[in-house]
Amino acid sequence: MAKQQDLQKEKIWTRDFIFICMANFFIFAGFQMTLPTLPLFVNELGGSDQLIGFVVGIFTLSALLIRPWSGHVLESLGRRIIFLIGLLVFVISVGSYAFTGSLVLLFLMRVVQGLGWGMSTTAVGTIATDLIPQKRRGEGMGYFGLAGNLAMAFGPALGLFLIALSGFKTMFLIAASAGLLSFIIASIIRYKPANKTPIEKKKWDIFEKTALMPSILLFFITMVFGGIATFLPLYAEQLGIDGIEWYFVVFAVSLMLVRAFAGRIYDRKGHKAIFLPGAFLILAAMIDLTLLANQFMLILAAVLFGIGFGSVQPALQAWAVNEAPIHRKGMANATFFSFFDLGVGLGAMFFGLIASTFGYADIYLTAGISVLISMVIYVIYLKRSAAVQRHHEAVQWK
């Protein structure tokens, strides 16, 4: 009987976990539909490559600014309020794009969308963390991430298909509708109660220190993500390579196939078995895109990047959350996604400057250097951790 109760406690697929995965799917579907299409929309409105990078980047930077506040509210007022408000702001902002004909107005609404995105994604990751047993967190976060990956599998392709079929207005309204479905599902989830115990706060409490190392590594990895998401459709079009829709599908399928498997490895062996192999695959994908010449190379990059990113991202998130105190899980997620946003945002802006000055191929060469930096930082971290461990063991032996 006791064994059966223990198994029940370790169960991942509960009613609310299924609902949070569904809510995550629809919010990411709305987001992913705009990912490859918004640069094309800015281009149609007369924007340059540099302006495209700026419009994409300001979205992630505004999300970055709201995340620390969101992390505190998640702990003090509870998960529900911040999640629902964030989803509602996202729906309104994305829907407004359908009626936007000005780059200035688009820029302003991108700032608003970033606020909604920052609140909702900080909340959804924290809610998922609440619902997953700690001993199965790597595996559970892998399953949770599959919802976003499934949205990624068809969202970009659907967005590109809709603008070809009906134009940007229809596409933006359907993307907003996906966010609305997420809001409806989120309203019926049973949330963890707000923390009634007063928690001492520092004056500049804007991150969780235990989550810093995985978050820093994530920053250099998501610099790559910003370059791909923003400029790859334009790069492929310039080279005359068809099938950019299939890139996003293959990328997402590769993510889905590897996530749960990599999560189990993380639970058994930790991040040492995941990070360097995954980062190496991402580096190989960047080299492939630098030399991009045909559709085969495009699809190969999708497979390499999908497997690499699908391994690294959930492992880093589980690492960040597991190290945090129980009352700081929200801030750990806020820290983690703040660095995610910072990487994507700065990557989009920086790569926009590179594209306008040198060319699209140089984006991916630079992105490869960013991945290499993350690998060097990780190796240094491992060596220092080993040295600290040896010192502690020596002190205890004495």
UniProtKB/TrEMBL annotation:
* Record-level Gene Ontology MF annotations: transmembrane transporter activity
Q: Which InterPro entries match?
A: MFS (IPR011701), MFS_dom (IPR020846), MFS_Exporter (IPR052714), MFS_trans_sf (IPR036259)
The coiled-coil regions, if any, are: none
Membrane-spanning intervals of the chain: 12-31, 51-69, 81-108, 114-132, 144-165, 171-191, 211-232, 244-262, 274-293, 299-322, 334-357, 363-382
Any one annotated GO CC term: plasma membrane
Which UniProt keywords are listed? Membrane, Transmembrane, Transmembrane helix, Transport
Query: Where does the record place the Major facilitator superfamily (MFS) profile domain?
Result: 16-386
The protein's topology relative to the membrane is: Multi-pass membrane protein
User: Which SUPFAM superfamilies does this entry report, sorted A to Z?
Assistant: MFS general substrate transporter
According to its UniProt record, where is this protein located? Cell membrane
Q: Which PANTHER family match?
A: PERMEASE (PTHR23531:SF2), QUINOLENE RESISTANCE PROTEIN NORA (PTHR23531)
Q: What is this protein called?
A: MFS transporter
Its taxonomic placement starts with: Bacteria, Bacillati, Bacillota, Bacilli, Bacillales
